[in-house]
Write a structure and sequence with these properties.
Blueprint (H helix, E strand, L loop, with lengths): L1 E6 L4 H10 L4 E7 L2 H7 L6 E5 L9 H4 L4 E4 L12 H24 L6 E7 L10 E2 L9 H13 L8 E7 L1 E3 L4 H11 L4 E3 L5 E2 L1 E3 H13 L5 E5 L5 E2 H12 L5 E3 L1 H8 L5 H4 L4 E2 L2 H5 L9 H8 L5
Parallel strand pairs: 1-2, 1-4, 2-3, 4-5, 5-7, 6-15, 7-12, 8-11, 9-14
Antiparallel strand pairs: 10-13
Length: about 300
């Protein structure tokens, strides 16, 4: 029976991935700082074990890593925050780079490192690129998020020195009412306060949570998969279109409009506009070429499913 270790698997994306990977043919070992809390919060499938770790130093979990087929890292302090303070940016950065550094150290210490290391990244790698269509071959951009994603990916690639195949999942905005951006927006939209941000013309690379889990599982199963993969829908939309579609689904107006200067003031820094005003027209070129089929390729079907109105 193969064994897969997952870090950050008790989070929003991780829980969906665990459900997708679970099966009689494999054992899933989830590393979490609070295993008892995680056991109480989730209805984990058979074959899932939760182990404690502190996220700072190797521990008994090293024996689980030795001989595992894959290591998946989805850990990282959430990027979205009401105020983008210096302290918040440091937490976002350190949570990603320090965790990856620890996992690299662990892989170097075991006798049989994993065959593949799947490390989460983000389409923020591309920065604010206007109308440009972005594939995995596009260079990285500028700004805090682009620099962080570039450092994160460069660090993850160090596992290749150990003979480990590295997968870099550049994930877009993940849609599901259970968490992420949609959960934050729903209260506003239900009050009729949703609307465009800035000009609303910026491109938004999005994906349904179930398609994220399916895509990551798809990549883990491919022995020839390596390097960066855009984990996004094939149909990015402008932010104003997203606002209209969500409001239409909720039967609410879209009178709200937050100009760019107000967003910068509310969030506390100019860098905050990278979250909400950057235009990222990323496309899943490699996933489509590899034959991956999206369950929710278009925004209307994805939003209906995210809201529980479609299978």
């Amino acid at each position: 029976m193969e064994r897969i270790l997952l870090v950050g698997a008790t989070g929003f994306i991780g829980q969906a991935l665990v459900q997708k990977l679970a099966g009689p043919e494999r054992e899933l070992v989830l590393l979490t700082r609070r295993p008892e809390d995680a056991r109480l919060r989730g209805a984990w499938p058979r074959g899932v074990r939760l182990l404690g770790w502190d996220g700072r130093s190797p521990g008994p979990w090293l024996q689980e890593l030795d001989g595992a087929r894959a290591l998946v890292n989805l850990a990282g302090h959430r990027i979205a925050a009401f105020r983008w303070t210096g302290a918040h940016r440091r937490r976002v950065r350190e949570s990603r780079l320090r965790t990856t550094e620890l996992l690299l150290e662990a892989m170097a210490r075991v006798t049989r490192p994993p065959e593949v290391f799947l490390s989460a990244s983000a389409v923020g790698y591309y920065g604010d690129r206007g109308e440009e269509q972005l594939t995995e071959a596009s260079p990285s951009g500028t700004g805090f998020l682009a620099e962080l994603a570039r450092q994160w990916e460069d660090q993850a690639r160090e596992a290749e020195r150990l003979g480990v195949r590295v997968l870099l999942a550049r994930i877009g905005v993940v849609l599901d009412r259970a968490g992420g951006l949609l959960r934050q927006l729903l209260p506003l939209y239900r009050l009729g306060l949703g609307g465009r941000l800035g000009s609303g013309r910026q491109w938004m690379a999005w994906i349904h949570r179930q398609d994220v889990a399916r895509a990551l599982a798809f990549l883990l199963e491919r022995p020839d998969a390596s390097g960066p993969w855009n984990v996004v829908s094939p149909h990015p939309v402008r932010q104003a279109c997203f606002a209209r579609e969500l409001a239409r689904l909720l039967r609410r107006p879209t009178w709200g409009h937050l100009p760019a200067w107000m967003l910068r003031w509310l969030l506390g820094s100019k860098q905050a506009q990278e979250l909400l005003l950057a235009s990222t027209r990323a496309l899943p070129a490699r996933l489509q070429a590899a034959g991956f089929r999206f369950r929710y390729p278009d925004l209307p079907s994805a939003l209906r499913a995210a809201m529980g109105e479609a299978p």
